[in-house]
TrEMBL record, chain A:
Domain called ABC transporter: residue spans: 3-233
Gene3D superfamilies per UniProt: 2.40.50.100, Nucleic acid-binding proteins, P-loop containing nucleotide triphosphate hydrolases
UniProtKB keywords: ATP-binding, Nucleotide-binding, Transport
UniProt keyword Nucleus present: no
PROSITE patterns: ABC_TRANSPORTER_1, ABC_TRANSPORTER_2
One Gene Ontology cellular component: ATP-binding cassette (ABC) transporter complex, substrate-binding subunit-containing
Family: Belongs to the ABC transporter superfamily.
Organism: Celeribacter halophilus
One term of GO molecular function: ABC-type transporter activity
SUPFAM superfamilies: MOP-like, P-loop containing nucleoside triphosphate hydrolases
Pfam family, one: TOBE_2
Protein name: Carbohydrate ABC transporter ATP-binding protein, CUT1 family (TC 3.A.1.1.-)
TrEMBL record, chain B:
TM region(s), chain numbering: 203-227, 239-257, 286-306, 342-364, 399-420
Keyword tRNA-binding included in the entry's annotation: no
Domain ABC transmembrane type-1: 199-416
Name of the protein in its database record: Carbohydrate ABC transporter membrane protein 1, CUT1 family
Membrane topology, as annotated: Multi-pass membrane protein
Domain of life, per lineage: Bacteria
InterPro entries attached to this UniProt entry: ABC_transporter_permease (IPR051393), MetI-like (IPR000515), MetI-like_sf (IPR035906)
One cellular-component annotation, GO: plasma membrane
Taxonomic placement: Bacteria, Pseudomonadati, Pseudomonadota, Alphaproteobacteria, Rhodobacterales
Keyword Phosphoprotein set for record: no
Record-stated family: Belongs to the binding-protein-dependent transport system permease family.
Pfam family of the protein (one): BPD_transp_1
Organism field: Celeribacter halophilus
Localization, UniProt: Cell membrane
Length: 347, 433
């Protein structure tokens, strides 16, 4: 089911949280709403689910206008950050609740709950209470409850935030598997770029109630539309260097040639990812002093402080003989650098 | 006992003292009083020995044989050796000899007859009426109306009357005017039809008021739960007013609302409805207003407790219920109410206990009226022991009423403690996920 959100505006009292935002999600697609806390991603999700009213704009599921529909009448399933399971109901009753309020026959509820429990692999836990389940099991129950109504849209609000690291990895692929198997259109709200990149077909990166960029994870990583997007994606994060563009990019005693096809003049910001800087690359050199080494096993993170005080970070395969305080002259993969103007827009 | 224990006891002592003074002592005294026939007429200290004219009728029931009663009743005045000796000492031997000659061995039923007999003296008549009266008194042998400070004096007196030994013990007991230990209070409670009426009234009062309290408290909590915070707070504050208002003032406002020239009557008059006292017109009127008066006080407690337990339920559960397709009623029925089981049970049990013993609002509103239709058990205890219209305050009977309440209260408390498993309840909140 295609989701079409147009000119969406949301206000809480006098504060406008989201103004004039548009988003369209293709049928069967899984999209991530990514951004720091307070950027309006959960608000957008709650507006799509109908829990929050939409103050301006329209929302269509397929051809159907659902802007004014109460949440009860929208074909959505929601998984909440704290799972919001009903503590007084057993797992089976939790999953069957959406069917129970539709007044379906107990036999049918039972068979559909069983079906759903098999799908999320908790068939043996149906009699337990939520308190008796682990975080991952609770999450599966929440997923089953969201899907049992056979909704057209699955909304996930930070579903992995309350899990430990190992479970998070497991549930990441589990949620993606479920989404693929059911072919449901899904929206994932997260502040974790890895979750967004690994689980979703496309990412909508949000900032202050706006969508900064919307594209596939690879595209967003390779061609960030702004300095903000470039800074948000990537771990370890991208390094930024202020430079002066005047036929070439000069910063301190260092200079890089201007990449082909880019005409820039005056102050610019160079974005250089750690994996595109180091002794193992081909290209023009930048020199500086090693100021920090963080061993990671397979590779080391090395900070290089440039003569003008700015800092670049490099990922260097383990087995190098770089020492702290050493002066290095390392290559930059020129084709992979990003250039932004003073306002942060991509050049 | 080390210093810490002593210090602990020291800090506890005010509380212990309060518990002993205001709980244990009253309970013990209630038990003691319940087994006495203490009342205004017996006083609370010891008594004297006295048989009065009116006591004669109840003596056979107390185990005194008819002959003995006749002995007490008849032969008030007798001319015989001992009384004549007294007469001779005051009025001279000659008169005594003449009287003996005229009426020796005679006895008279009342004083006037005795005086007439004295008029028969010819040789040296007693002319003054007053003197004749005083003389008549000397022949008096009855002990009716006479007070004897000790048991020994009383026994001596009835022995002198010739009461057989077999009747003396029963008579002495019947003559005692102070209080005694007895179980007759409980027999009386069991036998009096009014007792059952009060018990039924109490049950009716507790059930109706409790239903109103819990139901209305829940309604207020749930309805304010869905209101915006500010509005909800104002609303709750208004509903809390009856609880913080002094009861007398609060009930006075209800009286003003309901009496025959009050608010309701005034409002309804233009519609051609005759003004009546809405609170006391019939038993149904009275019960309605008693439930309302108590309910509006009690509902606020439920409202506060229910509201806070509602707010302890995570908001996302309601969001989840909405997207699961549950309408308002289904949210309340399936998600909210089941999680409020404990507060509802707590309010129910707590208020059952407090309603059983509370009577102040009924006292102020209808005072048990009309008739005795709204007289509940606790109010009956109060009326019997402390505010009797007849003036004879029956402390013993009142205590017996109260003792029944104490026993029911302790039994219910024990039951609730067991049922709620309070240790568990304190250790782990049931509402949390």
């Amino acid at each position: 089911m295609r989701i079409e959100l147009q000119n969406f505006t949301k206000r809480f009292g006098d504060t406008t949280v989201i103004e004039d935002m548009s988003l369209s999600v293709a049928s069967g697609e899984m999209i991530a709403l990514l951004g720091p806390s307070g950027c309006g991603k959960s608000t957008t999700l709650f507006a799509i689910s109908g829990i929050h009213r939409i103050d301006g704009g329209t929302l269509h599921f397929g051809d159907r206008d659902v802007t004014r529909l109460p949440p009860q009448d929208r074909p959505v399933g929601v998984v909440f950050q704290n799972y919001a399971l009903y503590p007084h109901m057993s797992v089976a009753e939790n999953i069957g609740f959406p069917l129970r309020v539709q007044k379906l026959k107990p036999a049918e509820i039972k068979s559909r709950v069983g079906e759903m429990a098999e799908l999320v692999q908790i068939g043996n836990l149906l009699k337990r209470k939520p308190q008796q389940l682990s975080g991952g099991q609770q999450q599966r129950v929440a997923l089953a409850r969201a899907l049992v109504r056979k909704p057209d849209v699955l909304l996930l609000d930070e579903p992995l935030a309350n899990l430990d690291a190992k479970l998070r990895l497991e549930m990441r692929s589990e949620i993606r598997r479920l989404q693929r198997e059911t072919g449901i259109t899904a929206i994932l709200v997260t502040h974790d770029q890895i979750e967004a990149m690994s689980m979703c077909d496309r990412i909508a990166l949000m900032k202050d109630g706006r969508i900064e960029q919307i594209s596939t994870p690879a595209e967003m990583y390779e061609r960030p539309a702004s300095r903000y997007v470039a800074g948000f994606l990537g771990n370890p994060p991208i390094s930024f260097v202020n430079a002066d563009a005047n036929g070439r990019l000069a910063f301190g005693d260092n200079a890089l040639p201007l990449p082909s096809g880019i005409a820039a003049q005056g102050p610019v910001v160079i974005g250089l990812r750690p994996e595109h800087f180091g002794p193992q690359h081909q290209g023009p050199c930048v020199s500086g002093q090693v100021s920090f080494i963080e061993p990671q096993g397979r590779e080391d993170l090395i900070d290089v402080t440039l003569p003008d005080g700015q800092r670049l970070r490099a990922i260097v395969p383990a087995g190098h003989d770089v020492a702290l305080g050493q002066t290095v002259n390392w290559q930059v993969d020129l084709s992979r650098i990003h250039l932004f103007d003073a306002e942060g827009a991509r050049l | 006992m080390n210093r810490q224990t002593l210090l602990g006891l020291g800090f506890l002592s005010p509380a212990l003292l309060a518990v002993v003074m205001f709980f244990l002592l009253p309970v013990v005294l209630t038990v003691v009083f319940a087994f006495t026939n203490m009342s205004t007429s017996t006083g609370i200290l010891g008594g004297e020995y006295q048989i009065s004219e009116s006591d004669l009728r109840r003596l056979p029931a107390a185990g005194v044989r008819e002959e003995a009663v006749e002995m007490l009743a008849g032969a008030d005045y007798a001319v015989r050796a001992d009384t004549l000796a007294l007469f001779a000492a005051e009025f001279g031997d000659k008169r005594a000899q003449e009287l003996e000659a005229l009426h020796g061995g005679a006895s008279f039923d009342d004083r006037r007859a005795m005086e007439r007999a004295l008029k028969d003296l010819r040789r040296d008549p007693i002319r003054s009426v007053r003197e004749r009266k005083a003389a008549a008194e000397l022949f008096r042998i009855s002990i009716l109306g006479q007070r004897f400070p000790t048991e020994a004096a009383f026994v001596e007196a009835i022995t002198a009357l010739g009461i057989p030994e077999a009747d003396q013990a029963a008579l002495t007991e019947a003559a005692y005017t102070g209080w005694t230990f007895t179980t007759q209070n409980f027999e009386l409670l069991w036998e009096l039809p009014a007792t059952w009426r009060y018990a039924l009234n109490s049950a009716l009062y507790v059930v109706l008021t409790l239903a109103f309290n819990v139901g209305f408290g829940l309604f207020l909590a749930l309805s304010t739960f869905y209101l915006p915070t500010r509005t909800a707070q104002t609303f709750r504050a208004i509903w809390f007013l009856p609880r913080i208002l002094p009861p007398v003032l609060y009930v006075l406002m209800w009286q003003w609302l309901t009496w025959d020239q009050g608010f309701i009557s005034a409002i309804l008059r233009p519609f051609g409805i005759e003004p009546i006292n809405w609170m006391r017109h019939t038993a149904t009127h009275a019960w309605t207003f008693i439930v309302l008066i108590n309910g509006c006080v009690g509902a606020s407690l439920g409202m506060i407790l229910f509201s806070s337990s509602l707010r302890a339920i995570p908001e996302t559960q309601l969001f989840a219920a909405q997207v699961d397709g549950a309408n308002r009623w289904q949210q309340v029925r399936f998600v909210l109410l089941p999680q409020m089981r404990w507060p509802i049970l707590f309010i129910t049990s707590y208020q059952t206990l407090s309603l059983l013993t509370s009577f102040e609002y009924i006292l102020l509103a209808t005072d048990g009226g009309p008739g005795r239709q709204t007289e509940v058990w606790a109010l009956a205890a109060y009326h019997t022991a402390l505010s009797n219209y007849g003036g004879n305050l029956e402390y013993g009977l009142g205590a017996a009423y109260a003792l029944a309440l104490v026993i029911i209260g302790i039994l219910l408390s024990a039951l609730y403690l067991r049922f709620f498993n309070f240790r568990d309840l304190v250790a782990k909140p049931r509402i949390e996920q």
